[in-house]
Amino acid sequence: QVQLVESGGGLVQAGGSLRLSCVASGSIFSINAMGWYRQAPGKQRKLVAMLNSGGTTMYADSAVKGRFTISRDNTKNTVYLQMNSLKPEDTAVYYCWATTARYDYWGQGTQVTVSS
Question: Which residues are registered as beta bridge partners of 22?
Fold first, then answer.
């Protein structure tokens, strides 16, 4: 079992920045990759960025390239999503995600609201 706890969401004006954090606990040695999804109102949940156990990053959403950065601190079992130059269209619930050989795990979600 893996537990994920997110923090760092909130309300920010367009052009501002936020940093999301996701702390993993439990069977963290079994995690193959971690990342962030987001779900805007009325839309499907979509992958934003991910980072595998080897440290390779991938940004699935072209809209965030150059603005968002995913990183990790292994000493804290934490994955971050640094979000800069935020836009109103970035408004969504952001979910931390971790995958093992057998299961996917999700955090509870954190709301990010960008006002224009």
Answer: 6, 79
Is the separation of the CB atoms in 67 and 17 below 8 Å? Answer: no
Element (H, E) at 96: strand 92-99
Return the structure tokens found at 100: 């093992």
At position 74, the amino acid (one-letter code) is: N
Q: Which two tokens stand for residue 27?
A: 């069977």
Query: Under a CB-based contact definition with an 8 Å cutoff, are residues 105 and 2 in contact?
Result: yes
Query: What three-state secondary structure class fits 62?
Result: helix
Separation CA 77–CA 63 (nearest Å): 27
| Counts for the chain of helices (H) and strands (E), in that order | 0, 11
Q: How far apart are CA 43 and CA 82, in angstroms?
A: 23
Which pLDDT belongs to residue 35? 97
The dihedral of CA 50, 56, 62, 65: what is its sign? Answer: positive
Low-confidence ranges of the chain (pLDDT < 70): none
Distance CA 1, CA 17 (A): 32
